[in-house]
Specification:
About 15% of the residues lie in helices and about 45% in strands. By secondary structure, it is α+β, with helices and mostly antiparallel strands.
């Protein structure tokens, strides 16, 4: 009996170890191979971060992190128009498609300061340098009021640059100011038509809505955990798109009611987003967990969402570490910055993309949790099996122990069977 239980226990332990090993094996990943829908791949710098498209000239502006570099790419001719070096790391880029001015944020780690650079989008010439605190700052533009905003993440303040002249052309005159908002502002967006400023706080997980004219707070809107830059605003519909990295969710805010009306689950640790597409599709970069700079933890896909129903259509494999995403609806193109491979991919904005479909949208959201949950389940199962074996063993041995402890002859049996003695006469 003891040999039987011992061999059973060994078999269970061996099975558990094999299952645990199989669950820890990395999943196979696909990489872009240059075929449809990939129209082209650009190698122009290291670690592309943010993208911006001039919808009039169709130039694509790329901010590179290592080293800091701003590149203007012409997708029509397939050539790089110009390259402008920036300090250590360029973290964000925006463009005004009317004035064709490009706004780029870059940080100098040695000097512990960040600057907002204003460039001529046609030739890359820097026309203004504005101090913007420190950190990986994000940018927003109010093209109606001619105001640029930069979030200083390390200082927890927002810098405001009001162009008194020179927004369109001519000599530039700028009035600078700053204000505080929330505990840790991380992303910013503007609806210049409504005159509203949206500031996402990654500590309180809220978006604060501010009236640009008087600075009054109009609303605070709870969103998914750790909202990050970029925060996109669709001025045509008033919708605000907020990517919650830790919450693994795209939240869509109705700018007229200041309420979240759609919460779309996406892949782990998303970042970049493009919504202004010819197909009405929304593209979210699934950058993955890069907290330890471990490329094996990087995502390899972009999530494609129906912009009308806000349901996940599927995912498209693009390569390791997709980050910034931008679209040119006139050219039916989507651009994705693939940070870990130092490339920018040009993708066809098509409804016929070869997507990996999902049985449910939660499958892709919870994919990174499946292994952990499986391991916990197996450990719990092992504990239950061990307790079951111990219980069964005790149940089998207990009757034997009872028999051994019970004497065959009662203690008083000797006196009860002794021969009687007669008293002397």
């Amino acid at each position: 009996m003891a040999k039987y239980y011992r061999s059973t226990f060994i078999r269970l332990i061996t099975s558990f170890i094999v299952l645990l090993f199989l669950s820890l094996l990395p999943a196979a990943t696909a990489h872009a191979d240059g075929s449809f829908p990939i129209l082209g791949v650009l190698h122009a710098g290291n670690a592309p971060e943010a993208l911006a498209v001039d919808t009039q000239t169709h130039l694509l502006y790329i901010a590179y992190e290592n080293p800091g570099l701003l590149v203007a790419f012409d997708p029509i001719s397939g050539t790089v128009r110009w390259r402008t070096p920036l300090p250590d790391s360029a973290t964000d880029v925006q463009v005004d498609s009317v004035s064709h001015h490009v706004f780029a944020s870059a940080v100098s780690y040695s000097k512990h300061r960040s600057n907002l650079y204003v460039l001529d989008g046609t030739n890359g010439k820097i026309v203004a340098i504005l101090y913007s605190g420190n950190g990986d700052n994000s940018i927003a533009l109010d093209t109606h009021l001619h105001i640029a905003y930069a979030v200083s993440i390390d200082q927890n303040i927002i810098y405001k640059y009001t162009f008194l002249s020179g927004w369109q052309n001519g000599p530039i005159s700028i009035q600078s100011s700053h204000f505080s908002s929330g505990k840790n502002p991380a992303a910013i967006g503007v609806n210049s038509r409504l005159g509203r400023l949206y500031i996402a706080d990654d500590t309180t997980n809220q978006v604060t809505v501010i009236n640009e004219n008087n600075g009054h707070t109009l609303a605070t809107i709870p969103v998914a955990a750790f909202p990050i830059s970029p925060l996109r605003v669709d001025e045509a519909t008033g919708r605000v798109y907020v990517v919650g990295s830790m919450g693994q969710e795209l939240d869509v805010i109705d700018g007229n009611t200041n309420r979240v009306f759609a919460r779309v689950p996406v892949s782990p640790y998303p970042e970049g987003i493009a919504f202004n597409t010819a197909t009405g599709q929304i593209y979210v970069a699934d950058e993955g967990n890069q907290a330890n700079n471990n490329n094996s933890d990087s995502g390899t896909t972009i999530t494609v969402i129906d912009g009308r129903s806000f349901t996940v259509i599927g995912t498209l494999a693009v390569g390791p570490g997709p980050d910034g995403v931008e679209a040119d609806p006139a050219l039916h193109r989507v651009y994705v910055a693939i940070e870990d491979s130092n490339t920018v991919e040009e993708i066809a904005d098509s409804t016929n993309l070869p997507l990996t479909s999902l049985n449910t949208s939660l499958q892709i959201v919870k994919a990174h949790e499946t292994v952990s949950l499986l391991q916990r389940a197996m450990i719990l199962t092992l504990i239950i099996m061990i307790l079951t074996i111990v219980g069964s063993t005790l149940g089998a041995l207990l009757p034997r122990w009872r028999v051994r402890e019970t004497p065959r002859t009662p203690p008083m049996s000797a006196s009860s069977h002794s021969e009687p003695h007669s008293l002397p006469q």
